[in-house]
Write a structure and sequence with these properties.
homodimer, about 240 residues, alpha+beta, two-stranded antiparallel ribbon, about 25% strand, elongated, DNA-binding
DNA sequence: GTCATATGGTGTATCTTGTACACGAAGTAA
DNA sequence: TTACTTCGTGTACAAGATACACCATATGAC
């Protein structure tokens, strides 16, 4: 959460009152918007704040950037510490620095967004000391700070990017059916797609390849599973190929 | 310039050594990549640093964010103070925060990019106390800090965005010929476009409208001038219209 | 094992958009 | 008048987008 109290971890805080500067400096935090795909919608991972300000209010996972730590590293560390999420697609989103966005004083936050395979992280209600939970985007609780704005911007970014960069796959398990993939695009882009045309288009790109596996545990005909051929994509990228849905 | 010494201006600095915090805090700056379009290429506006570190080295205009100042405001202020540029298209680009990007200590910079009508700002060689100059992107001088990376990212952003958002017009005067517009796209996208197809496409969008004016002072047949209909664009945007070249 | 139910998986015809391509018109300058 | 330079235009073809419906295959209940 932005500008929350530092949590313990292995790092030992220096004695207070020791950092003196000629000019005032803002505090700098990172916050992460983790988006995950559920059966029928996009969800965002929130944590419930344990400390003032906004105690008990839901907020984005995040916290202070350490003195010798890269911004990306800070974002990944906070994500790990507060939600146990690791190895996700993570990208810097935007930096929010309105002078009064934090009641304690000037806090500038570098926001990140992450795409997670929601099935990997079944933290569905509460897990830790603070609670952690996935919330559908259209039923967000009241949020601390300007975190609602940050989430909005993350969703905009995802919507804009998903058509031109194959990041949608980050929201799916490694093996997925074409129906799942289509549903992903329908949810993110908020419009219906034609099944046959979608398949034609996707397969024509040659980046989604058939596997031997079939969907398991469904009570109807099982769908074939496909995978995204990342290596091929990277090869094509270098040749100026453009992904587009 | 990132994390340069503060310049005088009207603001009076507080007495040194007065700002004390419990935890170390980074300094936060803004830096601006101003891009302008010349006859044959994109140029970036640089200033020559008057102070250590990197004294006399070329750098991006920028400086510290004031305690009660929004980030965008800080970027515009620095641009005005250091280069006299005002009223340009300005957008946050990316935040650079590698721990040792500034030799003086931890400095995080929020980078912005701006698009300017180069003809409005003929600061071609030196203007101020420090020099200011436009440099073509393929002939940049040695740059201070990580400013070369920042410029690279700004150009990438422009290239990615110019096809889907009508920001190219920000680089042209209010009235322009279709040949000028085509040249803009050719320079930014780094590929040749077909004249007839380009015109057909542009005019079919209905956002570039003919004026009564003709090009002046050319030694051949004068081209008709057009203008970008921003109001119409904004109206269409609300209806889900998508600009694309 | 048959039937009901649910989703999987496939092809074609039409329309729209992108691409390739060349020359006369209009103005200036000598 | 002529030479030069850029302006401004249309058509034929290829590629890609869209609209649209039905049989196949698996499960589960009876």
């Amino acid at each position: 959460m932005a500008a929350a109290g530092r949590k313990g971890e292995t790092w030992t805080p220096p004695p207070p009152g020791r950092h003196v500067y000629d000019y005032p400096r803002p505090a700098v935090t990172v916050d992460c918007v983790v988006l995950g795909l559920d059966a029928d919608d996009l969800k965002v991972l929130l944590i419930q704040r344990g400390l003032e300000p906004y105690q008990h209010t839901w907020a984005l996972p995040g916290g202070f950037v350490l003195p010798d730590e890269d911004l990306d590293t800070a974002a990944r560390r906070e994500l790990r510490e507060e939600t146990n999420i690791e190895d996700v697609y993570l990208e810097q989103l935007y930096t929010f620095g309105a002078p009064r966005r934090d009641p304690r004083g000037r806090v500038i936050t570098v926001a990140y967004y992450a795409l997670a395979k929601l099935s990997d992280y079944r933290v569905t209600a509460a897990t830790d000391a603070e609670s952690v939970g996935w919330y559908p985007l259209d039923k967000l609780p009241a949020l601390a700070f300007d975190h609602a704005d940050i989430i909005l911007r993350a969703v905009e970014r995802l919507r804009g990017k998903v058509r031109y960069v194959p990041i949608g796959f980050e929201l799916l398990p490694p093996r997925f059916s074409l129906t799942q993939l289509q549903r992903l695009y329908e949810i993110v882009l908020e419009r219906q797609l034609d099944k046959r045309n979608f398949r034609k288009k996707i397969l024509s790109l040659g980046l989604v390849v058939e596997t031997e596996e079939l969907e398991q545990g469904v009570r109807h005909r099982a769908a074939r599973l496909f995978r995204f051929d990342k290596k091929k994509y990277e090869r094509l990228l270098k040749q100026g190929f453009e992904f587009a849905i």
